[in-house]
Amino acid sequence: MKVPKAGAVAAVIGLVLTASGCVGDDDSKGTLAIGIKFDQPGVGMREPDGTFTGFDVDVARYIAKQLGYKPDRIAFKQVYSNDRELLIQYNEVQFVAASYSINDKRKEKVDFAGPYFLAHQDLMVRADDTTITKAEDLNNKRLCSVTGSTSAENVKKNLAPKASLLELPGYSECLVALQDHLVDAMTTDNSILAGYTVRKGNEGKFRLIGLSLSSENYGIGMKKGNTELQGKVNEAIRKMVADGSWEAAVKKNFGADYKYEPAPAITTGS
Q1: Which of 63, 91, 157, 165 has the smallest count of CB within 10 Å of its CB?
Q2: If pLDDT is split at 50, 70 and 90, which confidence band does 270 have?
């Protein structure tokens, strides 16, 4: 990602400051820039018609509403796993909701609200493949994940050292490789995998094994030191869980067969 020039950064800062007023449906609040994934069906997806779908999108919209922003005042911006911190630090987004796991390394650069979701690393295989029931079955088989994935590293290092690893730029490419029998499984968070299984056109083609190879607490990332925003986002998450909107969003985006954890307790901020 190119680092914005000083003038551009100043302009964006001005926009974000304009957008950070008090709660209420006030058209003078400006635009709320939110970072999401554009390529993860069920989690964060930019559809061909330009609309946005996914669990993270629903969470982001709920939070925005609680902050006082109408739908037409939300600007979704694409983030990648390797540039989320930069987008936050340079004020290109006010917060990020993008399957963003909370960990100590990331907390050195950004603050989090939440967590709002607990995912587990899992494996996805073709629906008719009965040869893989656990991670160790990947020994002498072919596994796909995205380049630099900690999920693939976990399998290769700790569970199936004899697995052959194919790293591709995105999960959609892995899905094609799995469908075309170029690999035997793909791995990442079960939320992302579940989104692919229920995607229109994929029904009945793939299935999750149902493993918990790691635990990933998704949080809302934001600039360090913004305790007021952190508190308001945490309050919005609690309300979303309490009024049933959170569970409804899980079922809508991940399908009726997805075995999800209850909403995790909030451990950040206030």
Answers
A1: 157
A2: low
